[in-house]
What we know:
By secondary structure, the protein is of the alpha/beta class. The protein is built from 3 helices and 7 strands, in the order βααββββαββ.
Amino acid sequence: MRRKIPESTLPKLNRSQTITAEGMEKLKEELQHLWKVERPDITNKVTWAASLGDRSENADYHYNKRRLRQIDSRMMYLRKCIDDFKVIGYHPHQEGKVHFGAWVEIENDKGLKKRLRIVGYEELIGAKDYISMDSPIAQALLKKEVGDEVIVKTTAGEFNWRINTIEYQK
Length: 170
């Protein structure tokens, strides 16, 4: 049996509670999919496996019960995110400067170019060109303009980048 660790002893992560409109839509779609498709399917499998009798050695039953708990846990998390996160959309005053939701092309002194979008942490899954607004590079880029040089300080050292372009999805 697992021992529950009191939340007061867990380290607090300083994550922003912001998300883009596209990110919020994806969270809502995932919640709907879990509720309307996956959960009913797994519930049917649990019911079927339970009808077979002895559950102590019934792998289908145990696997699907665990999957059902995972789905329920993810759904609770998504509902909390949808309720708590603040959607930050594009506004014309953002033009010319790096703000949340911006696509930024940066280049280092060796000519390496990267195109990144600054988003909330929940939007990072499956998106290789998205960075969290809480990351060191995003923090260095915020409120800067095209042509500005930024120094990104990380545990691996300091890195210099120049901002080439800033774009927003409108």
